[in-house]
Amino acid sequence: MKIKPIILALAVPLIFFTGCSEGFLEEKVYSNITPSNFYKTEDDAKTALISVYSSLRSSNGFQRQIILAAEYPGEATWPNNSGEAWRTEMDQFKWTTSSTGFYQIWSQLYVTINRANTVLSYMENIQFETPGLKERIIGEARFLRGLAYLYLIRFFENVPLKTEENMSEIESSNEGTSDAVWALIFADFEYAKNNLNSKNTGADVGRATAGAAQTMLAKAYLSYAGKPWNKSEYWSKAAEEAKSVIDNSAYGYDLEGEYEKVFLLENEHGPEYIFSVEYESFMGQGWDFPTFTGIRSGDQLKLDGWSSLTVETAFFDGMDEADKRRNKTFVLSYQGINNPDRTYTYPGNISLPHYNKYIDMEDVGSGTADYALNHYITRFSDLLLMHSEAENEVNGPGDNALYGINRVRARAGLPALKSSDFTKETLREAIFQERLWELCEEGHVWFDMKRMNLMTTRIKKYNVEEKHYVFPIPQNELDVNPSLVQNSLYK
């Protein structure tokens, strides 16, 4: 679903005044839309739901800041000394409670939650005539709410629980809420799994599906099982849910035959797609990430790039040259878009290694923030690797644990791993490394290091402390809400 903006026009008649009167300054209300009088028809519910989807595209959310927060602290990516100080703070593990990105992410995820809560709170006001539509709208709203909470709790751990029942509370506390937030996440994804379509078609492509909900449920279980919650009984739940999605032919998920095809505009809803943030050019709904990662003065894009998210040289050097993902992951060589007779290469006349994933020469919008490529929140290879991780934590490095990672490696042209070569601990690190090669630049690595307790061992370039496994509650929020309590490692 290429989500289009919904414009609600209020018609106000043009009034001509011919003279003054007693009521000249009295305001007349001709039209006033509020939640209490808006939610009447099925179309109203659909319009409101689109506003929840649209919130994902904010630059404070999944359009940029969430991805950067999950990438910069990793070992693959750095900001090339560009733009906001927060980017360098994230890259060098020098962030503080006042670092700007935390407030932006926190507030934007609560925008998504509040919009979803509003939709859910008014469903009983609507007369539904289409069978199953009410349940699907509730399912999509709950999926999006669960998604926002999953990111919030993994980033900040202690967050206020706001639902349709207490959404009007202004000073909600974040003390002792963790278990209740996790319970809501699981319940939201479970409801969505049971009430959404297995697959969408036509104009509905891009909406959440049962497969997307079940995949995110598996990711939620995986996260809850790992650091810092360490609910080890949830490893088996994660493995079970992931395997159920993998085996469900109604979902139709599979790996693309070639890694490059995953990131082509023409194939953005191919078999590997599970759920994305949707973008479209020429409608004010584009994405600026190709510009953000594109090469500054590199003749790589029609409207140039910014080189603001670039590749660590050691990570570039560490990928096997035989790895078939290498050519699409990194910029190796291309012909100039404005000077097609000139060849650009790295190493060569490009000074720094850059990502190539979200660069598609066919994706040309109306400006530097108007690209149509979608951002994968999750895709099938992510699911396969989640299954391997969960199986390894439950049963060690057996055939079940190697199934997913070896499928991913086979597409990359790499040899299969053998169970006899690994312990549970060494296979955990191998899965992390495979996720880094497969999913770099897609907003996973910080969560992976956190869950697997690998941040302090993997990051050697900077001083990493235990507090870096969680982000601080934004100082802006603490200043206005006395009921919030700062995470203990930041006090």
TrEMBL record:
Pfam families: SusD-like_3, SusD_RagB. Gene3D superfamilies: 1.25.40.390. Its main location: membrane. Residues 24-222 form the SusD-like N-terminal domain. It is found in: Cell outer membrane. InterPro entries: SusD-like_N, SusD_RagB_dom, TPR-like_helical_dom_sf. Keywords: Cell outer membrane, Membrane, Signal. Residues 339-490 form the RagB/SusD domain. Belongs to the SusD family. This is Starch-binding associating with outer membrane.
